[in-house]
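Dataset card, provenance and construction

Sequences and ligand SMILES were collected as paired inputs. For each pair, a complete structure of the chain with the small molecule in place was predicted and serialized as structure tokens. The example below shows a pair involving zinc ion. Curators did not alter the output after generation; any descriptive sentences attached to a record were derived from the structure itself.
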Amino acid sequence: MERIRSEPLALRDFLKRMPKGADLHSHLSGAVYAETHIRDAIADELCVDQGAKAFAKSQPVVAGAELQPVCEEDQVPATELPKNQRLYNDLVDSFSMRGFVPSAGVTAHDHFFDAFTKFGGTDPRHTGEWVDEVAARAASQNIQYLELMVTPTWRRLNTITRDMTWREDLKSLKDELMAKGLLGDIPAARAFLDEADALRRDRGHCGTPDETPACQVEARYIYQVFRNTPRESVLAQALFGFELASVDPRVAGINLVGSEDNYAAMADYADHMRIFQFARGLYPKVHVSMHAGELTLGLVSPEGLCCHVRQAVEIARTDRIGHGVDVMYEEDPEAQLKDMAAKQVLVEINLTSNKDVLGVSGRNHPFPIYRKFGVPVALSTDDEGIERIDLTHEYVRAVESYDLSYADLKQLARNSLEYSFLPGVSLWAGPDFARLVDACGSDVGGADKPSSACETLLKGSEKAEQQWELERRLGAFEAGF
Ligand SMILES: [Zn+2]
């Protein structure tokens, strides 16, 4: 790696093959590429709003014995896209950062977040196909585990809080939500995941002789709670997500998401932290990560940079932080960094996303500062489809921007599994990855078969099992040099 450090293409090839463990921060709909959203819209017979460069619902009209989708006057049927290259190109640009040039009234930040609405509207039954796409991409880059942020059915959540008013007493709000049947959609949410998993397995031919490499990628879901909704809705989503994660092992945790500089995100932030503190008290075993500190000077006022990361750690007691870009602008950053190191709160680092959305990169990004203070970090993609990148791209960027060594990269890969939300004990005796737990003794370094004591440990811990697999892969990769 030292020999090819300044050769981007050779470096990319090397890092693509390197075992990278997990991608812990990936929004499924943003991880899917625009081409897939367009294919799905064609299958769903949606319309395209030519002005907004966005999908629109078609109106079903009776034609003979059948219903036929009809588009409005200024719209064209998505089925015409394969023959309309110009509109196709425009949509790919509209759904991603490809070729984006800031213009009057549209910043990169807005273009990025608006993409979700523009490609939205396709049928949620495509979810399994999306998981297969993202898993296939992961497999091709020697990534073995994914935590994918999704939003299973929450139609009832949209209506359940409509005539509720916010009050400080979270317990009474919770009782009201429960009485209104908040948890009634849990079976529907689980059925949604069943359907997604079945479609993923079907598309990958998993369990058959034609099984694709995507099947070997372990995936878990993270339930997203949208912050830019009324507070009672944030509470309802959180309680729903915590319940879902506590009854369905495929849901590995909860994440608080959404543009952090929006009005509600800023004005209600402290209440959101109280909501998570409250929910964590009810469900102490459920893991939590949250988008915090995806801010920078200028995007919000200096006062707005006071304390989001700190409150996420101190009040919500989050296990991980997504982004954490503004940490050096917060009050007493040194104490904050030391606290995060002591509590081993991992920061999910999204370098390209931060450059695109916040304009923060290089020495203005706190990635090297987190490392200096011993705060655990891992590289992740955020929205690889919108950014039109992959995790390998982020490894290349990290090496080029921060002069990382191969040993540094190995630590990032190991962190991604050590701080994953997979259940079970760690394979490692400590977070410095110096030594394996006693049961696995000196088995380190890609031994083909674990000892019997170690095998027992691996059988009882999905996390340790994945960690063992990463060490095996690293051993095999390194043996090639
Ligand atoms: Zn994110």
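Derived descriptions for this record:
The CA atoms of residues 251 and 340 lie 25 Å apart.
The chain has three domains: 8-33+124-418, 47-95, 438-479.
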